[in-house]
TrEMBL record:
Recorded coiled-coil stretches: none
GO MF annotation list: acyltransferase activity, transferring groups other than amino-acyl groups
Domain N-acetyltransferase span(s) in chain numbering: 1-144
One matching Pfam family: Acetyltransf_7
Superkingdom of source: Bacteria
Taxonomic lineage of the native organism: Bacteria, Bacillati, Bacillota, Bacilli, Bacillales
CDD domains: NAT_SF
Protein known as: GNAT family N-acetyltransferase
Amino acid sequence: MIRLCTMDDAATIYEIINDAASAYKGTIPEDRYREPYMPVEELEAEIADGVLFWGVERDGGLVGVMGIQDKGEVALIRHAYVRTTERNGGIGTRLLSHLMSQTEKPVLIGTWEAAEWAIRFYQKNGFAFVSPEEKRILLQRFWNVPERQIETSVVLCDSRWSAN
């Protein structure tokens, strides 16, 4: 079952994100990886900034989460994570499809350039890279990330996106 998460789910969202983000260790730039990958305060700030988390529930517990954030002219897919024990079972695809159905706006996704598995997942689901120049503009405009993250990330877009 896919459902909208509530603040009661924050501890579980935190757990899922930090479990799944262990895949980044040794892959993304060392200066960008930390443990926990997303501290509680950062998760709370993301929720306060309008990231709506949706989750797949199985056997009474969440096994994957993904956020969507309305940024006016676009929607951002944020923080897509599935428990390591549940990977490659279609949970991410189900969540992405559900979130895509929640908006008519163009959808953008930012991820680490080195996270090849994530990029393949998004491409398999119809997303394509924006140009490096456009990536920089979009990350500065719609995300709040440091310069080092801009340098080491990519942005993908759905078919509704067209550069203005």
